[in-house]
From TrEMBL, chains A, B, C, D:
Protein name per UniProt: Dehydrogenase
Occurrences of domain Gfo/Idh/MocA-like oxidoreductase N-terminal (ranges): 1-117
Residue ranges crossing the lipid bilayer per the database entry: none
Lineage of the species this protein comes from: Bacteria, Bacillati, Actinomycetota, Actinomycetes, Propionibacteriales
Keywords: Oxidoreductase
PANTHER family linked: BCDNA.GH03377
The organism of origin for this protein: Nocardioides aromaticivorans
Length: 380, 380, 380, 380
């Protein structure tokens, strides 16, 4: 695994736990952790439970005792590491977004398709797909329970920079982060909307907004220690992204991603309305899927709060009895299960790098649309 | 109508509105309002829309231009007025609780049964039965959708005297109010539980609690004007009432009524669990009934939030389109509709005085049980 | 009052009830109802409680015993009736949308402004403003409790034509209805968003969608009686409308109005995020306002479910005790109260016709934007 | 660790994870798993991640490489194992309920108190205390935010035997399980109620109900294989338990535990009303605590939905960013953290065996009360 902060911790817990609850066809060994700084990487390896550590990722991707490379670094290094690992014959799990640009994503997708010829697998980490309630949502749509889908309304709402005095972190600088809320969290709801509906966005009208143009530099940037910085720097990414969308099927979408929705902490909300029914989900109540079945008599129809904790629900049988909910990191465990199973079975895990590339194209079209004030088509 | 405060206002709006939305077989005329004080009764009649007013209720119950007597006074005058009105051949609608004692309620029930022989109708005003969501709940149970009922948990939660410095109103004095939360609000959930399930409570173990034993006298009692009273008086009724219950069917009930549930304003909550399904209701979201249908596959079962605003729902077709909810006073309008229809049809409206008497017996058993610390049976 | 269907019934109940609960400075008399068909108008007058009726609206607007003309007809007759009434010196309450076009609305606004010089008042009926929870929302924003507003997300979701076999009513024909979901329900959420924030939309990117292009003709159109029509007609209005918006303050808006949101019956939802707090409302739970106060410690901050039924809440003191909720039609009663009070006080009631005109301009810009696939500014 | 089914899996995940997220003063090693059957214990040790296994628990409690004995067996073996382990100088974590009888619990408590003299620690596993929302609830009460507590209403609702044809498992036989819903799940809400309020139950009136007196024997009991058994056996424990309670402070409690609440899967609900505020919790939405602060102005007071995922909340800083919820098993991890910390610090972890004994006495009083139909005091 390369990278050891927020995503590194989540992925480590997943690698550690998957085989304890699921019958895996292969037994993962947490062999080597890659990082940049020797001391911090060593400490992380000890804490997160990796046998060894390196500070040189090329070494990691070429080691014989490594079969899978799990990339948890920021987006600007994804392409280089993933392409090298695939070339070295290692299966790759790459955190989302696939890359910071369409061009990189295209290159990665070509590498993945070439590797697939050799039986080497590549997968991108849109983990929320593996929340049981989301997997159930997809199943209900696929089973025709919603009929023809008409509307998708999807929001990813956070509030961690709603305070204009929150410091200018690297996530607010375009050269490092690629984009702001759009790529960081908007990408997730694009993936979920397309995954649940089995449909693809074909056209968008977008609007990116940066509400707070300047922020205090974090102490690390300001060269100050121990005192609050008076210096300010420019915010060069979007604070919020909104877009209208059309899907291939003719369904209409409304999307929003923001870090300024005061009081919403990780509100991934998606509602889908079809001719026969509707679904609604909010990650802040992640073990629940709301389902309206319009084929019931009006007298007794209503949104049902399905507690997605039954053994018949996706992934749930491996865990606890009904009503004993799962948490955020369980989606990562399910990702490991699906990846390891695909590797053992010689099948292609999803979402593929091509799926990641298509999402990158949607993100790109939203940015272009916002700049040109016109609708943009998503083209392959 | 006799009485013109809170209940008088609600009843007046009901008499005024019923014929505007429902096809009534008879057209009610708001003829005479009865009160004690000339000036206040005159003002109330003008405000509430009554043609005339009197300060002598016996006059009212004997007038030729009066067909129905609607009793909205405190409980200690119900028996006298109702019995006189029935004797005079007037149909009677009597606010709940039917009376302040079992003995009075028995006398009233005898009078009602005797009057029924002469085609004169008597009905007691447990209005919450006529909230559409409650009427739907009863229908679902009656239709067998819950199977065998196992549990009833019912709460009536308010908080208006949670502050120990709230003054000693007449409602907190036994000689005037009869009982505290038990009779005032507990009676409602007893009625709802029995109405929805179609079952009767046969045995109780109760506990009455008076948390605040003394309160400041209201200015009127203390003979002070303009200054906060230092004088205190004893609270002689229960602040809260709780009881366990067994029903004739073997179902188990847990009941609670309190004016000390801080933050709960008028939370009439009832949940019923049966072998095939469950229902849940909370008056603070009065247009909604929650229904769990256990005959659905586990994968998709969940409590459904039925918005009880469809034309197929009880009483709703007369009102607004789906999603346009009703309010507190609509139950009173439905009560007028049902009463007038029964009078015109020559049928017996419900709940009858006998129903009111049975509830009085449950209240009485709870009090006795609390005093004796043993279970008490409800006997006819 | 002119018109006697859905809105006529709601307005009648409001005129009848306002003085029974509120201290009105003037006592409304329900004098004349105007309609087209003699028999139906007579029946409606009897049912809704009007003293007289006419089938000739010009007669109504010139009668000496008429002081206020309440226009509840479809949008295509608003301009003519309102302008005539104002010219005749009658105060006017006009249902929304103000008109079917910007041009008509401009003419009406000129007439209203001219009439105002003579002390004659004109008001447009965006009734949802007068739901207590909405009035409280505006107050909280005006009091600065949200700080700088960043986001508005507003939806008006219904589902009454989600079934593609629902018949082609006049509301789905452009020549009669003007527009579809956009003007009928979208206008409401535009008004609410601007009212609550005290801000104005200045720019939009819109998308109108007609999912079902043809529908069975209703029997009345097909010349058939008693049998289901096989004939189909074209739907010439939008089924759904979505738009992104920018406000004068720099806040970002996302709006959606649809009649295809299966399971959503009258879900008027509005969420506002500001630098200090957030608000959320859903008309399907109309007595509740959700409020997040970000100035509290993180440890105890959360969206609060304010039950807007306290005497300190707007309009509520006239009604029932805490926890005893109001229903759909109460907003109309509050509208009567505010209008009558303004007339008596000689002040201008709001929303004015100029407010209605501005909303018409937003609607117009959304339509143009949808047609041109570009952003449109709202210009005066 | 002794025992390897449901609780064994949860405890194993906790021992494995605690040190990965929290800074533990000691590093737990998962050394030996004890079970009865060699093959099944070996498989469980491999799956759950224990280094060795034994089928002889006395061996386990005397091994030199064992410092802590974690008892996850059924209640009838708790006393014997715990007392032996404490005598052998091992720290003990014992699953709840502490024992199947008051006598056993007393003996265990004496052993624990004697061991404490020698610095050997004993703790009982009421894990739900360590859900962050529950720990926050306790803190708010302890900080005085609720004022004087008046009401506790606590329910533990499940539905896994609502179907009368569900088989007769050992959990429904008194000789093996001790009691039914009362001890299995009722014990949890008794602990939570006392823990959150910091108060003790002193008196109860209970009612135990067995709705379904006979059930089909499970195949294992009936000696049948592959065919549904026609044989039936008697259910000898309670299906549901309800009781009224008084607390030392004078607060009033209403408790209910049942396996017949159709649609409720693991609904641990607790509401506490005090003179200054109220709290409400439901485990089916376990990352949320509802809090009503009555010291706010009426206009803006309401139950706030605190998402208990902030770094300032108990235990949360070790985990994920705000809005990224925890699941069922995290409480077990927190239990390990607290136990290991107490052992390292030489302090007494809670709940102690004495706490477990007091709960056993409450359970015992409920049973006696149900049998005698009178109130019972809890005596030390």
């Amino acid at each position: 695994m390369v990278g050891h902060s927020f995503m590194g911790a989540a992925h480590s817990q997943a690698w550690r736990s998957a085989g304890r609850f699921f019958d895996l066809p292969l037994a993962p060994v947490m062999q080597v952790l890659g990082g940049r700084d020797e001391a911090r990487t060593a400490a992380a390896a000890a804490r997160l439970g990796w046998n060894q550590h390196v500070t040189d990722w090329p070494e990691l991707v070429h080691r014989e005792d490594v079969d899978v490379v799990d990339i948890c670094t920021p987006g600007d290094s994804h392409a280089e590491i993933a392409i090298a690992a695939l070339a070295a014959g290692k299966h790759v799990l790459c955190e989302k977004p696939l890359a910071n640009s369409v061009a990189e994503a295209e290159e990665m997708t070509r590498a993945a398709e070439e590797a697939a010829q050799r039986g080497v697998r590549a997968m991108v980490g849109f983990t929320y797909r593996r929340v049981p309630a989301i997997a159930l949502a997809r199943k209900l749509v696929a089973d025709g329970r919603l009929g023809t889908v008409r509307h998708v309304r999807a929001q990813y709402l956070q509030d961690w920079i709603a305070d204009p005095e929150a410091p200018l972190s690297w996530r607010l600088q375009k050269e490092r982060a690629g984009s702001g809320s759009l790529g960081d969290i908007g990408a997730h709801v694009i993936d979920l909307a397309q995954y649940i509906t089995g449909d693809a966005i074909t056209e968008v009208s977008g609007h990116l907004e940066t509400f707070v143009k300047e922020r205090p530099l974090a102490a690390e940037h300001a060269g100050l220690s121990g005192t609050a910085s008076q210096e300010r720097g420019e915010v060069t990414v979007d604070d919020a992204a909104m877009f209208l969308a059309r899907f291939a099927s003719g369904a209409a979408g409304v999307f929003e991603a923001t870090r300024f929705a005061t009081g919403r902490k990780n509100a991934i909300r998606i509602e889908v309305n079809g001719s026969l029914g509707s679904l609604a989900f909010d990650f802040e109540d992640m073990n629940v899927l709301q389902f309206f079945d319009a084929t019931l008599a009006d007298e007794e129809a209503g949104f049902r709060r399905i507690l997605v904790t039954e053994p018949t629900h996706p992934y749930v049988a491996a865990w606890w009895p009904p009503g004993h909910g799962l948490g955020y990191e369980h989606g990562f465990t399910h990702q490991v299960v699906d990846l390891v199973t695909a590797i053992a079975d010689g099948t292609q895990p999803t979402p593929t790098f091509a799926d990641g590339l298509q999402i990158q194209r949607v993100l790109d079209a939203v940015e272009t649309s916002s700049a040109t004030r016109t609708w943009q088509e998503i083209t392959a």
